[in-house]
Amino acid sequence: MRKEVPFFRPFIGNEDVEEVLRVLKSGWLTTGAITEKFEKEFCRSIGAGNCVFVNSGTAALHLLLDAYGVGPGDEVIVPAVTFIATAEAVEYTGAKVILADVDRESMNISVDDLARKITERTKAIIPVHIAGVPCEMDEIMRIAKERNILVIEDAAHAFLSFYRGKHVGISSDGAAFSFYATKPITTGEGGMVVTRRREVAELIRLKRLHGIKYEADVNGDIKRWKYDVVTHGYKYNATDFKAALGISQLKKATLMKKMRKREVEKYVELLRDCELIQLPVVPPHTDPSWHLFVVKLKVEKLTISRDRVIEELKKRGVGASMHFIPLYRFSIYRDRFREEDFPGAEFLFERVISLPLFPSMEDQEVEYVVKNLIDILEAYRK
Ligand SMILES: *Cc1c(COP(=O)(O)O)cnc(C)c1O
User: Fold this and answer.
1) 117, 123, 183, 242: which is the annotated catalytic residue?
2) Do residues 213 and 229 make contact, with C-beta atoms less than 8 angstroms apart?
3) So what's the pLDDT on residue 220?
4) Rounded distance, CA 10 to CA 234, Å?
5) How far apart are CA 318 and CA 315, in angstroms?
6) Mean pLDDT of the chain
7) Are residues 43 and 151 part of one domain?
8) Is 183 a catalytic residue?
9) Which of 232, 251, 270 is a domain's end point?
10) N or C terminus of the chain: which is more exposed, having fewer CB within 10 Å?
11) pLDDT over 70 at 1, yes or no
């Protein structure tokens, strides 16, 4: 039996290496034809209208907010439980971050609290599909439409997640995907803007590279030295060799999801009867990407804290983690928010543990994680 199981192991094969090498040797390193190809293939893979490849998921979120004109004086509602990047992208625009509490079961933004947090200044809502479990998008879209509020999805975890039979990320005003090392597919670092609105995509295409527009002359030739800057932009473009990795990752994305899902089934089979944890709850009308496998400790029945369970697992060679520290607990937000206002997030903060999950995980690795988790919990049963 294995004595160590990492939290994550990348799934990079020779086919990925060869695609990247081919582009590295092609003579074109920065944004070019391979980026365009990746965008087309990503659009096709989820049925999206327009896709723009950028250098991170955070940049993708920022560009969407910026292109829709979110700025100073506006409020943007974000769930209290997410990665800091979601709120950070809002801060970039000068708009105010408003936190909504989260649902104890799904860990996603609470639709009730979201509705309560809307004011006349609310310009956008950013639902985050935590762990790849889709948010209640029908309700969120309905609330947003009634009040003319934008919905920008943080789909960093949700590539190949389905909501009511449809791909996540194509039904709102825009979605940001992340290709960070551990995400459902990776380009090392990278992100994708997805939007139905063609003019928004075109603006973002300009903004990702300084707002530069090249003009073709009467013969259709583009003069690279003679350009205009037509909008305020950023340095958010990505490279063609990253796009090459993205294309080859796309080819095996469904396989990688299947592999993760298989290990999730193994976890569920082995943990189903454990009275000391609660397994993830998947709403019946969804099919998650299984980016993370998050269990909740039944702390009422235990004399050990979540933090110590993670440390005990580490001693036994198991790389567990937790997603996420609620944003109001960070130094930068402590003065603006109170813990008492987020009972759902506090409930989760005491209980959640992310167990190792990655495509190349083996059954015996799942068995090793489960055995150690159960040993630890049983030793501290009340
Ligand atoms: C990873 C992540 C992001 C940001 O993605 P990057 O590509 O790392 O910038 C945004 N939101 C969530 C919830 C994430 O997990």
Assistant:
1) 183
2) yes
3) 76
4) 30
5) 7
6) 97
7) yes
8) yes
9) 251
10) N
11) no
Instruction: Give me the sheet containing 150-154, strands edge to edge.
Output: 50-54, 191-195, 174-178, 150-154, 122-125, 75-79, 96-100
* Ligand 1 neighbour 28 (Cβ under 6 A): no
Residue after which a domain boundary falls, among 233, 251, 269 = 251
Same domain, 221 and 301: no
Residue 340 sits in a domain whose CATH number is 3.90.1150.10
Whether 194 contacts 170, CB under 8 Å: yes
**One domain, residues 84 and 204:** yes
**Residue 348 placed within a domain:** yes
Same domain as 161, residue 74:
yes
Does ligand 1 lie within 6 Å of residue 135's CB atom? no
Q: Is 289 in the pocket of ligand 1 (CB under 6 A)?
A: no
Q: Does the beta carbon of 172 lie inside 6 Å of ligand 1?
A: no
| Among candidate residues 279, 260, 264, 284, the one with its CA nearest the CA of residue 136 | 284
Query: Using CB atoms within 10 A of its CB, is residue 341 exposed (0-12), middle (13-18) or buried (19+)?
Result: middle
Q: Which domain holds residue 194?
A: 14-251
* 331 Cα: distance to centroid of ligand 1 (angstroms): 20
Per-residue pLDDT tens over the stretch 149-175: 999 999 999 999 999 999 999 999 999
230 and 316 fall within a common domain: no
The neighbouring-strand residues paired with 281 are none
Tell me whether residue 179 is in a domain: yes
Q: Residue 152 in contact with residue 309, Cβ under 8 Å?
A: no
Q: Are residues 122 and 243 in the same domain?
A: yes
Rounded distance, CA 290 to CA 178, Å? 15
pTM over 0.85: yes
- Inter-helix orientation angle 363-379/253-271, to 10°: 40
Identify whether 196 is part of a domain. yes
Cα of 59 vs centre of ligand 1, distance in Å, is 9
